[in-house]
Write a structure and sequence with these properties.
This protein is mostly helical. It contains 14 helices and two strands, in the order ααββαααααααααααα. Helix 11 runs antiparallel to helix 14. The termini are far apart.
Length: about 325
């Protein structure tokens, strides 16, 4: 009887605590924490763990599984169609550098007052809003022999017989696909850069102009150090996106004529050849490569911007000194 009474008292005390303001706050906080974490575990970490487990088996989507240990990982590095496809990522990495440089250049110009700047921003950002599959079909016709791109070049005086096959010639087809990615994503990077540049204190520009700094000096000593976080973020996203390029080669060429990127080959192995274990190993290897690339980029930009901060500190000290002299001369008048 005493035990039952203690249990009833505990339950009554818990109900009273749950109905109180503090108890409801704790319950709501726990609910907002537990539910997202449960969904994240169910739909992200649990499938990832299963994929890592599959990478040690020779298996299909249905049927028996055979444990093969590290054999699938060895195949990733030995098969030309697996690891060799990562070489194509160099094309997309080169395109990402062009993309970021173009986006930063245009963002720097458009961050100042320019006639028609808002319309230009809208036109440049619009491709990012289009579905990737739709962009693939657009550029598939754009690069087709005798179609849009060839027609424009003929208007400029080029002969059709002298033009290459943009999607067949292995010397140029990957560059053509990279151009598609640059066209789609540089507008997004440009808008991010503009937002970061607009947040810089305008008084810094005024002080720099009093110091005699030109536009390039303002970009080097004020803009670039001030937006280093966005620059680092865009570089990381661009490089990781280059390693996982999929939509342009899959939709435009289906990976033919040497355009099959790592994701396209992985899709072929997983869904066509039904080698689920090997495809899972490829996914794990790609994850490790992206993780390593992200760490190296952070270390690199930490070193680069550390030097930039030192230079900016020296420039700031010189600027403050000159401003003090200017104020003293003005007060003497």
């Amino acid at each position: 009887m005493a035990a039952q009474a203690n249990t009833a008292g505990t339950q009554k005390g818990f109900l009273q605590w749950a109905k109180s303001r503090k108890g409801q706050q704790v319950i709501i906080i726990l609910a907002f924490m537990i539910i997202p974490l449960a969904l994240l575990f169910t739909f992200t970490y649990l499938p990832f763990g299963e994929m890592v487990g599959y990478s040690f088996y020779q298996m299909k989507y249905v049927g028996k599984k055979t444990f093969v240990g590290w054999k699938n990982y060895a195949s990733v590095f030995s098969r030309k169609d697996c690891f060799g496809a990562l070489k194509l990522s160099l094309y997309y990495m080169g395109g990402s550098i062009v993309q970021l440089a173009l986006a930063l250049y245009l963002a720097t110009i458009l961050s100042f007052k320019v006639k028609g700047g808002n319309i230009f921003k809208g036109f440049m950002f619009f491709p990012y809003l289009i579905n990737g599959i739709a962009i693939g079909f657009i550029f598939k016709f754009f690069y087709t022999r005798g179609f849009v791109f060839d027609t424009v070049l003929q208007w400029c005086g080029f002969q059709l017989d002298n033009l290459p096959y943009w999607l067949r010639d292995q010397r140029i087809n990957n560059i053509s696909l990279v151009g598609t990615s640059v066209w789609r994503y540089f507008g997004q990077n440009m808008v991010l850069f503009i937002g970061a540049i607009m947040s810089v204190d305008s008084e810094l520009y005024e002080a720099a102009m009093l110091d005699g700094a030109n536009r390039f000096a303002q970009f080097r000593y004020i803009i670039l150090p001030s937006i280093k976080t966005i620059v680092t973020l865009n570089v990381i996203l661009s490089i990781t996106g280059s390693l996982s390029a999929f939509e342009p080669p899959y939709v435009i060429t289906s990976g033919a004529n040497g355009t099959g990127t790592y994701f396209v080959v992985m899709n072929e192995i997983a869904h066509t050849q039904q080698k689920v274990g090997l495809a899972s190993a490829m996914a794990v290897v790609l994850l490790l490569i992206i993780f390593a690339a992200t760490i190296l980029q952070k270390l690199f930009f930490k070193y680069v911007f550390r030097n930039a901060e030192d230079e900016d500190f020296g420039a700031s000290a010189r600027r403050d000194k000159k401003l003090a002299k200017y104020a003293a001369r003005k007060a003497g008048r």
